[in-house]
């Protein structure tokens, strides 16, 4: 007997979709507010996570309910311009409300913000990075900042039984100028696309090592702590006070300041990553970006390195500071 074909039973699902969310993570937005010649800085990393009616996106391939992660990133930049960044919380509230109220498919928005705090670089002789010092105190820098959270101090001492070598340094000292930096007039080849600029953000994470002239322990050694503090101040002051045509020029200004001002130091090597800040194009959203909203790029980065020496001194600090 021929069996009649049976209707197939509905197959039990082999998997089910559980909790899900999506969005753009770690959008680095930098907002400069220019109050006359005094500039204010907000530097955030914003992560957006959205969830709601997203079953079809995962299960059927329909993207009809998906607001793109690219749009969520653009919204961060556009809102920095439109609403400003009063605080991390207030900024996140604006964003979360926007996503949940403007897209029927989005029922929940979680906005995470990391804020990197910056302090003003003090004028020469002033204390540096003291929170609460009045902005606009005589000579205080109006557009130069140092990232809060202290850098790491390094020291290397070498002794071969007769001669001493002392190399002190610092790393991860992050500094930023919101103006007084240009970069133009450079060589052009068929692969050059970088637009020339006469006003850009200049930011770097200072990695420095300096060698003292002291080699003989019958001679008085430098006052290590004072030498460190003063050298750090000179590096900050030269960074803040130099009108920069390139990071190379700023590097030389920093190194030569130390050589000229600190008689105990004979050599300094600086390794300066160029922490690029690109202006965000807000024109597609009908907004003008008047040097206010920047995208802080992570990598790749330019890396500018050089040694500055007291005349007559042979270089002895390794050119690759990671070897130190
Ligand atoms: O200060 C800079 N120096 C460079 O050599 C360089 N190259 C580049 O693309 N941007 C910059 N900026």
UniProtKB/TrEMBL annotation:
GO terms for molecular function: urate oxidase activity. It is an enzyme of class 1 (oxidoreductase). It catalyses: urate + O2 + H2O = 5-hydroxyisourate + H2O2. The keyword ATP-binding does not apply. Pathway: Purine metabolism; urate degradation; (S)-allantoin from urate: step 1/3. Keywords: Oxidoreductase, Plasmid, Purine metabolism. Catalyzes the oxidation of uric acid to 5-hydroxyisourate, which is further processed to form (S)-allantoin. Belongs to the uricase family. This is Uricase. The gene is pucL.
